[in-house]
Amino acid sequence: MEKVLVLDLSKCSGCRSCEMACSTAREGAASPSLSRIKVTRFDSEDFYCPVVCQQCEKPYCALVCPTGALYRNSETGIVELNEDKCVACKMCLLACPFGALSIKEGTKIMKCDLCGGEPVCVKFCPNKTITYSADYEIGESRRMASAESLKIAYVSKEEPKC
């Protein structure tokens, strides 16, 4: 069973607590520029979207990495970064379809590694926008939400009175 970060965009308030928690845990400083998760803000529409590594089944970032700095950990399944091997060629930045990787102080790549299986962004998200769930639970929760909507529509439908 693999676990993944699940984002419910309807709950994100743009508070950036996830960024602060991530940067503090990983870099010892509360700074959005040092976070592995980035909240993309659309203030005029009041819409906010956390962007984070999706731990893709086929990680293009790792496939294009010429030094092997990005790799899938065979034990955890997490796509990880070996900073010692990273030459900051930025090929992974170009390859990631989500734009989830970033540069640390112009020298090294930063990417989410799920905090080794205990993502701090999840713990500090006040609205529960970010959850860490088993991959099979994602479809199940969406099916349940859809079924609940259909049930409400069906049950509330009144029979014609004669």
Describe this protein with a few key phrases:
globular, two-stranded antiparallel sheet, alpha+beta, Alpha-Beta Plaits, 8 strands, 20% strand, 162 residues
Task: Please outline the helices and strands.
Blueprint: E1 3-7, H1 17-27, E2 38-42, E3 47-51, H2 60-64, E4 70-72, E5 79-81, H3 91-95, E6 102-104, E7 108-110, H4 120-124, E8 130-134, H5 135-156
Structure in a nutshell:
This protein is an alpha+beta fold and 162 residues long.
General description of the model:
By secondary structure, the protein is an alpha+beta fold. It has a domain at 3-52 and 112-156: Alpha-Beta Plaits (2-Layer Sandwich). It has 5 helices and 8 strands, in the order E-H-E-E-H-E-E-H-E-E-H-E-H. The strands form 4 sheets. Strands 1-8 form a two-stranded antiparallel ribbon. A two-stranded antiparallel ribbon has the order 2-3. The chain has a two-stranded antiparallel sheet with strand order 4-5. The longest helix has 22 residues, at 135-156. The chain is globular and about 60 Å long. The model has no long low-confidence stretch (mean pLDDT 90).
- Could you tell me how far the N terminus lies from the C terminus, measured between alpha carbons in angstroms? 54 Å
Oligomer: single chain
Q: Averaged pLDDT, please?
A: 90
Query: For the largest beta sheet, what order do the strands appear in spatially?
Result: 1-8
**Class by helix and strand content?**
alpha+beta
Helix content: 25-40%
How much is the radius of gyration in Å? Answer: 19 Å
Number of strands: 8
CATH structural architecture of the domain at 3-52 and 112-156: 2-Layer Sandwich
Q: What does the overall shape look like?
A: globular
